[in-house]
Amino acid sequence: MMEKMEKGRCAEEIAALFLLLKGYSILARNVRPGGVEIDIVALDATTLAFVEVKFRETSYFGSPANAVDWKKRKRLLKAGLAFLKERKVEAENLRFDVVSVVLEDEGLALEHISNAFGGGNWA
Q: What own/partner pairs with CB < 8 Å and gap ≥ 24 does 69-74 have?
């Protein structure tokens, strides 16, 4: 049986492949700017997307995306700003996405929420 961390890494791999199939370019994975992990940093045309990946073995309790609460959002915003500063990245278009991966009896269910939450003024 896979450990929780292994399942999370598998879900991140699936999410990265899913984004690649949608035409995204993966720039970084599992980076920790400001001490907070960003699962995937990707480029969607001219938009830099910070992607949080959530995995659940069932959707019985709802979408895994619901686990991205205000505390997690605040940490991801902090990490996004730190990523831009540390890497000296200038991007006009930024957003935060969530990819939910659910392992159901029928197989995998993927949900991509583009621009899942905003960060306000980036300037």
A: 73/117
Q: Where are the beta strands (DSSP E) in 1-59?
A: 25-31, 38-44, 47-56
- Tell whether pTM > 0.70: yes
Any residues with CB less than 8 A from the CB of 47 and at least 6 apart, and which? Answer: 91, 93, 94, 95
CA dihedral 111, 84, 20, 35 (to 10 degrees): -60
Q: How confident is the model at residue 29 (pLDDT cuts 50, 70, 90)?
A: very high
CA dist 97 and 50 (Å) reads 6
Tracing tokens 């730190």 back to the chain, one arrives at 82
Residue at 50: amino acid letter:
F
